[in-house]
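Quick one: structure for this chain?
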Amino acid sequence: MKNKQTMLICIGISLIFLIMFVGNAAANDGQYGIVIEKYTLGMDGVWYDADIAPGPAIPVGSTVEWKYEVTNYGYNPVLLDNVWDDQVDVDFYPVFLYPDSMYPDMPMEYFASGIAVPGQYENIGYVDAGDTIPSPSDPSHYYGIQPTVESSDGAGTIKDIFLEGEKVYAIGGGYVPSITYNLYVVEDVIWSNGDTIPSRVLGTATSVTTDDSGNILPTTIWSSAVVGGYDIIVDVNANGNYDEGIDALDDMDVNGAGYQAIPEFPTIALPVVAILGLAFIFQRRRN
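Got it. Here's what it folds into:
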């Protein structure tokens, strides 16, 4: 009987110590804790979480900006040792000194910038707050674009002169993969940055879709060309304006690009033959 009572007492004491240990552990876990969220600034001025690729499209060579938002979700202040990035081409601004005191439920923001490179890009933000607190991380992505567009034939060969009634195609590259963009075929104009894109030529395509490599494969943009001079523009940021360095433009006024549709040979040749015939007749009469 005494042995049973002793055993029950020992079990009770063990349970008390176990409850105290778990309670203290939970309390300690709640006292300290930090989390980081990293964002990439898009061309539209919106901060994107962009944990998953591809992220926002950024023109190659332009400045890309990141925001690192750090939150203390514990009960006590913590000292941040460092906020950093896994890529060496990331420059934080402004330069600040560590350690940095962070209080509960008061997020702190840090910023960095770099120069956009072609294709898919990923970098990871980290925050350190001593050896006793886990160092969280968060990724972010962007896709560096260098968009181009050209008129072409059905085989994808660049072509700038088409016969009246001929089918016109477009090709291009340097886009985000598997994205549909707004396309405009317009009468030839002089372009300036920020211009409103003119109305499309009747019967022309309104969009193009890139392949899984970010290219525009030969795509029909006009099934039957009409005589005239034309420009092609891909409105990458879909704002209805021409944005130099962002949108792709095939312009007749730049390096002879854009394209022309001309009358078919008989349309030109018959009047010329008639004139030559009349000249020949008049010459014979004189003789």
